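dumping the sequnces here before i forget
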Amino acid sequence: MLSLMEKSPMGVFLEHLAKGELAYQICLDDNKAFYYPRSVAPGSGSSNIEWRVSKGLGTVYTTTVVHYKGEPPLNVAMIDLDESFRMMSRVEDIDPMQVKIGMRVKFRVHAGDAKMPPYPVFTPVGG
Amino acid sequence: MAAVTNLALDGLKRGSVAVVGAAESDLGQVAPNTHPMDIMAQASMRALDDCGLTLKDVDGLFIAATQVRMGPMAFAEYMRIKPRYFDGTIIGGSSFMTHVTHAHAALQLGLCDVALIAYGSTQRSVSRAAASPREFNYWESPYRPFLPSSAYAMAAARHMHQYGTTREQLAAVAVAARKWALMNPKAWEKEPLTIEQVLNARMVSYPFTVRDCCLVLDGGGAIVMTRADRAKALKKKPVYVLGEGESLSHANISSMPDFTVTAAADSGKQAYAMARMKPSDMQMLSLYDAFTITPLLFLEDLGFCKKGEGGPFVASGAIEPGGKLPVNTSGGGLSYCHPGMYGLLVMIEAIRQVRGECGQRQVNGCNVALAQGNGGVLSSECTVIFGSDATL
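..and the predicted 3d for all of it:
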């Protein structure tokens, strides 16, 4: 088991992200991928967990466009990664209303800012 | 009879407890510096007056509120009472349905004799952001979803994609709620609403405009429960608890397994099994309408139409006044009142319909009503089926 004295699940995730990698975990007992990263596997409670690096390709499961006052419309989407895990993210480099369910997307790293560590976002494949 | 699927509920007996008192607090916008406890206390005394019991009779306390972190303690202090039994379970808007189930267990076991469930909020006065501050969550917060709206919007978008549901069909839920609200003197909204007005209102989180979203108001409520034998001796006609079900699905929307199926499919099955009833036995539905998609999903998941057919069902006028299935006769969270966690008011309308107290909007001969609670972001689903003595 990952000792929480040395590294946290989110800490390992951020180490991968710093290398441009989208990391996720898999429970070796049932071979199921899961996300967000955890200290034990969901469902089983197993410690038999392995970190993997995603190819970064996925499909939009659902999407919305948020309208904050005085700001341009903002996309929020759920992405189903090809490795069978789902995450919330944002599809960039495209009009938020043109983000469609079923669209293929590719991961990249958003640098974050003073208040937010780097985080994964997506762009349309071949877009 | 089908087996109750939730073993935790196996010990609860159909009809062994009843709601004897029910009341709202003042609703809408309360005076400056009103505290949520002021609202809760007002509603509690009204609910006790409703059944002829007093504060001294209350020995079971069930309190949840977003602005009062340790509800049972705060309530006991405010009222200067020492409850024998207390519970502060908080799972969002469906907390109070869970409190009914927990009160049922406590009453049946003799852990308390008079259970009071109460809630209060000043979210309109202090702002929703202040009343329900969101927890930071690295796996969602960077994307800035406008929660809870964006979560429900993504459920609606997926339903639209998968089943061809339209924005007009979603708007029909808001229009039906408004028609009912115009018959409820306590409803916040007083003017008629059209499909076009819903579609053309300010966009919040696509596909939702502000008219697809519940009201943000101050208010609260309370209900009083006792065992069935004592209930008969009190002022009002008892409203018996016939069935209960509860199901947790996730906490954050990104962990919802299927955005088009809620855990109400599970809680509903449990409640029907316990009540020994089926959907067609329900004479009125009180469905938590945080957003227009919510009752549409519940109509499907609770067995009133097939999965995917909720859109045409609501657009047919079925849930409007005069339709075949009265839903949210108070005007709902969309047009009557939504004080942050709305589940208690969801049940109060169902209870009043079974009592026959709803005046112009009364459903004729309503002996059975289903109340569906919803908490978080389609996260916790709890069902309670209420019935008159004719159903025992």
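The two ends of chain B are 16 Å apart (CA to CA).
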